[in-house]
Amino acid sequence: MRTVNMHEAKTHLSRLVDEAAKGKPFIIAKAGKPMAKVVPLDTPARAQIRRLGFLKGHFSVPDDFDQMGRAEIEQLFGGGK
Fold first, then answer.
1. How far apart are the first and last CA of the chain?
2. Taking CA atoms, which of 5, 63, 77, 78 is between 20 and 30 Å from 42?
3. How far is 34 from 74, CA to CA, in rounded Å?
4. pLDDT (tens digit, 9 = 90+) per residue, 16-57?
5. Is this prediction's pTM over 0.90?
6. How far apart are CA 75 and CA 39, in angstroms?
7. In the chain, what are the domain boundaries?
């Protein structure tokens, strides 16, 4: 892993952070002593992000959806008695 001194980190911070975000972490040192490690955040890949409404138009929900199986459920749990 690359180590950069404090002055270089301040001078090139934007570039260094861009590189870290792409998977090239680095360590910032002060007077040769490692002080901090810069690593990319674990963010979900774009394909892993769940999107609401992505199946819109592919199926429909019946109007009586909340009543489906009601008789069976009542029978199983003794409802209505």
1. 71
2. 5
3. 67
4. 999 999 989 999 999 999 999 999 987 556 666 677 888 888
5. no
6. 57
7. 2-38
